[in-house]
Amino acid sequence: MWLISVLLSLSLILISVFVFYVKWSQSYWSRKRVPHIKPTSLWGNIENPFKQKLGVKHIAKEAYLEFKKRGVPHGGIYLFAEPVYMPINPELIKNILAKDFSYFNGHGFPHDAKKDPLSAHLFNLDGDSWRNTRVKLTPVFTSGKMKTMFNTVLDCGEPLIQYINDKLKTNESLNIHESMSLFTIDVIGSCAFGVECNSFKDPDAEFKKFGYQVTKVSPRNKVYNFMKFVAPSVGKIIHVRRVTLEMENFVINMIQGVLDYRKSGKVVRNDFMQLFLELERKAKANNEDSFTIEEIAAQAYVFIVGGFETSATTMTFLLHELAYNQEIQDKLRNEVREILKQYNGNITYDGIMEMKYLDHVVNETLRTK
């Protein structure tokens, strides 16, 4: 009987300490005198993460609108016991992302370069790891480097055009989202991983299966995303893997194979892998540390995590809106035709950059969707 009493007492003490810790953590913005939205429960500004149908982005949107309504330049919310800072003023955001970025390099997302190497990409890293990786990657993402990849992207458009034409010839219905997904997979595979996917013609293409598997909502991803956004501190302690070991090995082995093939001198392409090879050569010439194969894999992996579904969905919504707004569609088509005339009918990087109305249409799609 006494053992039960001791266990109950210990349980009550632990629960009390836990509640005190959460409540203390949820007073952070009050102590800092920062405008904030008062937490409604131990979950902070989340009603209940296990019943919550809306994601973190919707919580952030509601908080943003509330702070805009108050007319404050910034504010704070709570995801569980984690205080989250939300800049509202555009100039403040600009300073954080540019002038003062060195003070805001802690992203708070769980990652482990040793146990889960694909999680250690630029968007997850913080501190010195983030700073060093950012410095190394900066030469890769210049406008000049992106321009060299344009023809690689353009080549991926030919299978898309052929796919649409084949559907038109047979009067088959066209699934726009599926079409944009296949196109996006081809672009990411070619530009980021240096592999030809052939997604439109090969239903069993290995990279296509990998792309869909990465973005598939699985119990593992749900747990990871919960830890990532709601309890990153807990996520760092118990460490939830973002990807399976099988997927990790697939990515690393694929990239190792591509790099080995390139180093043999058999092929040179304007893509992400080629830029890494150039960085490696420069690092060796200057006796500097270069990227490891795991670090390269992590940076390439984030392309498909952050770029696959987002790009495919944006293009799908854009085409949907154009179908419903004939006037905007006509105006955009006229702009494209006029600018293409200046480049002898060829789609070029510079020509795309001149299409201001196209830029407006894309931005409006992103804003409304």
UniProtKB/TrEMBL annotation:
- Major site of localization recorded for this protein: endoplasmic reticulum
Where can this protein be found?
A: Endoplasmic reticulum membrane; Microsome membrane
Query: One matching Pfam family, short form?
Result: p450
CDD domains of this UniProt entry? CYP6-like
Q: How does it sit in the membrane?
A: Peripheral membrane protein
Give the transmembrane region(s).
6-24
**Which is an annotated GO molecular function term of this record?**
iron ion binding
Name its co-factor(s): heme
**Could you tell me which InterPro entries the record lists for this protein?**
Cyt_P450, Cyt_P450_E_grp-II, Cyt_P450_sf, Insect_CytP450_Detox
Enumerate the UniProt keywords alphabetically. Answer: Endoplasmic reticulum, Heme, Iron, Membrane, Metal-binding, Microsome, Monooxygenase, Oxidoreductase, Transmembrane, Transmembrane helix
Q: Which GO terms describe its cellular component?
A: endoplasmic reticulum membrane
Source species, domain of life: Eukaryota
Q: Which SUPFAM superfamilies match?
A: Cytochrome P450
Protein family membership? Belongs to the cytochrome P450 family.
* Protein name as it appears in the record: Cytochrome P450
The scientific name of the source species is: Popillia japonica (Japanese beetle)
Record lineage:
Eukaryota, Metazoa, Ecdysozoa, Arthropoda, Hexapoda
